[in-house]
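We close this part of the discussion by returning to an individual protein. Part of our work consisted of pairing the sequence of a single chain with a tokenised description of its backbone. No coordinates are needed to read the tokens, only the vocabulary itself. The amino acid sequence and the backbone structure tokens for this protein are reproduced below:
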Amino acid sequence: MDIKYTIIGTLALMAVGTGAIAMLSNSHEPSDEQDEIIEDSVETEENTEEETLSEEEEETEEETEPTEDNCEPDPLPLHLNTGGDTFTIAAWNPDEVTVLLANWLGMDTNEVRNAVNTNKIDGVKCVVFNVGGYCASEYYDSMFIQGDDLDVYFAEPDWALQFLDDDSRTAPISDIGIPEYQFGYMYDYTLEQCVNTNGVLKGIPYIACPGCFAYRTDLAEEYLGVLDKDEMQSRIGNWDNFVSAAKEVSDRSGGKAALADSIGGISQAYFCGRNKPLVIDGHLDIDDTAKDYESLVRELWDCGGVSKNDQWTDEWYTNIQNGDCMGCFVPVWALQKNTFFIDANCKSYGKWALCSGPQPYSWGGNMLVVNPYTDNGEEVRDFITSAIYEENMFKFASQSSSMPNNINVVQQLIENNFAYDDVTSGNIGGQNYLEILDGNARALDLKGLITPYDSTIQSDLTSSLSYCLSRKSDFDEKLDLIKEDLALNYPELEIN
């Protein structure tokens, strides 16, 4: 069921056939000797032409042997067990797993979705937890402890590293037999998220989830005199400029409007821009990052540049709806209908635009990982190959709110001014939103920065900072408490 190689192999054969036809159509003129043969016998001419054609065809076959230039190389050796009777895949919700299964099996997405609910796909079992991605790791822990059948599963970058570092739960991608050139058009930062602490690639990031800064165009014109996205970007293109613009918005609105929606939103961008990891050689190293983060957020808080309501609360939604907040940090998956961004824009739909923001960042994501004890290695390879196959990436763009992780595909979507749906396009005035997101995805550099503790530290620092600012308490004391909690939960860390 190797979809990728079947299709490429067919194209290669077509190329060989075309080359043979071209050579035949340019065959040499008959020689004098051949002219004599023609005069002597028509039958001899026909026999000679048949022999010439046969020789030409043999030469063509020899000259068009598969090379790196004219044919896809054979798959690499497979180092996984095979022969199982059921291919089992697990995910926390049905959204993307059904799309990938449909594209692999050549079925309609709705048909697959209905079949998944009743486990009626021959040879395939889909386990769906129906929970948030942030807690899915606990369900996978349970499956491994119980010894449940499992071949492929989905992982979030926030917690994936604990599985990527465990050789009993994830197989190296080299074992799957997929050559590395197939990952050459993926965004670099997504591959960094799939490498374990020993530098081994153990996940396949089939989507990219870059973020951007969304802003109210009418309020930007009123408070900043900004008329387009390029002007807006020039005003907030780094954190210093962002703070300056926030102060101006607060001043000109009489303290009514904040530039940023929440500390939580700021954190998504800020922590993607750090210049060193939070844990170095087993030693916790967060003091400089924490103080810089506090300084930035406190300056925004004090000038009214960031909303003082916690993200996801009713008050937070109300602030955006009423124009008390003129901008939001938004990932690609939130631009479509039935997401927090669209819900928050119910009173200002169509008045928004996007720019890159102060820092390229990613928010969320997904990767495919493989149980090293799978007994369906061939199906695993076929499924993953299908997921990253370029033609299926184009289909995926219209099937999912996430961005396909293929720079070539995204570039073509940009050229076609693609929009996932009319709701997305209408809210931002028809803006080519993938152009902004593609730029941020290309610019984001996470090399050497990812540790298994990042999500916990970011969450702890953000919630503690919000608490201290709202209650005017000392952040240094909170930072000490954070370190104590980390020491209890992660005894392997060295903490001063």
Summary: The two ends are 55 Å apart (CA to CA). Residues 1-72 have pLDDT under 50 and may be disordered.
